[in-house]
Task: structure prediction
Amino acid sequence: MVRFCHAPGISRSGVHYGVRGRTPGEGMALADTPQRVFQRGTWPGPISLRRGWARAEARPWNDAVDDATLRLVRGGTGFIDACVQRLTHLGAPSVYSSPLAPSARKPWESAGFVEFLELALMRLALEPPVPAPCHLVVRDDDYDVDQMLSIDRAAFDPFWRFDRTALVESTQATSKSSVFVIRDGDLGITGYAVVGYGHAISYLQRVAVDPKWQGEGMGRSLVRAAARSARRHGSKALLLNTQRDNEPALGLYEAEGYVQLPESLAVLKAG
Ligand SMILES: CC(C)(COP(=O)(O)OP(=O)(O)OC[C@H]1O[C@@H](n2cnc3c(N)ncnc32)[C@H](O)[C@@H]1OP(=O)(O)O)[C@@H](O)C(=O)NCCC(=O)NCCS
Result:
């Protein structure tokens, strides 16, 4: 499952499983409690949870929200339940799932999760050529995370903001990705987009424009640059998800030819 827009991504923090020199809560199974989950990494921060073959990644939702977000790599209801217990034990008031397709919800629901919000899933066919951006959009291989975070903070409500971990994860959710920016002279950037490349399908992970510059066509230019790049990589379609009530984003995507898929994604919540 690939992360795009708001789903938790793949944590690559290389922390050992051993118990020697561990920080509290790290690298140990709570053998005397029902959760019995091995934890790699320190909370609050990205952690990996493991029990036998089952594996999941978790982190705080963002730096404004203490709740945890949990991404199941493999495992079933019992493991999800154990992860929730573990995260609650670590102090997370609630746990959110990654955005889930209907077919993936069953084990979560059996573990007590209920639907929290629905996300629209949109697709752009990349067979037809994508029109050129109207602004100078550049691929930034040396992107400035602080500048991107400051755009994100200005553009999104606190719940939907990326923190540093989430932003970096959005660039690492696929094995290859690009960041596109529109520059504001030498001062900084006015907006950015993250696209993650798959084979047949690529993912528009994020797009945000500084509110000072919204309504000038920059969102459109960023989205086009991302789509053209995915097309050059050989993808047949670009997928994204967004909140159902995000009218500017839905308006932009629909105007650019994205079609809402009948299947939606849902973030489920426990606790
Ligand atoms: C969504 C967003 C990127 C749009 O950027 P923007 O630069 O303001 O958009 P543009 O000026 O390029 O507008 C392009 C088209 O989008 C649509 N659009 C833009 N703002 C809109 C609004 N407030 N309501 C409805 N449609 C809107 C219109 O169709 C517009 O075309 P038009 O100007 O010819 O009517 C920007 O509003 C933003 O950063 N929002 C917060 C972050 C976000 O929600 N990101 C997407 C979710 S991952």
Observations:
- The CA atoms of residues 29 and 38 lie 5 Å apart.
- The domain at 121-263 is CATH 3.40.630.30 (Aminopeptidase).
